[in-house]
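Appendix C reproduces, verbatim, an entry submitted by the partner laboratory led by Prof. M.T., so that reviewers can inspect both the input and the predicted structure.
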Amino acid sequence: MLPFSGTGRWPASASVALAELGSPLTKHQFISKTAPEPMAVVISRKIRAQEFGTRLSKADREVLIRSARVALATNIAAKGLPPATRLLKAYATSPRGPRRIAYLLAVEEGTLFLLFYRDKNDDVGANMSPKNPEFSRQLHKHLDWLQADIESGDFEVIETTEE
């Protein structure tokens, strides 16, 4: 069964959580590429623990803020994503070296959800594509974690722009 209860839809509680974040990007703006960049990155507790350990360092937070640019990201083909979402790959340099970052973009809400923050030589970071079986396996696990943490309200929001 694919993530998001196999329905291909965001759970109702996720819609409420997204509504509370605001909607900086409309579907029309995204498609026309005249949209402002997303103003927030959502990080689920389970994904944060997997990718960063017990806490997100200031340096890694800054890398995420710099990399959260839809216009600079590359689309990743993936099956089984919820409707109106896209999987994006970003490249960044951190104090610990090159990173590969995967986000789930909720197109209508304009919100980025962090899925992976990996070293470029990691089994997943070296090839973030459906052709990599390890990436595909971990992608579905991370989508399940994201869903569970959104439903329980167990996530943090990093603002990427100053108001």
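The first helix runs from residue 12 to 21. Additional entries are available on request from the coordinating office.
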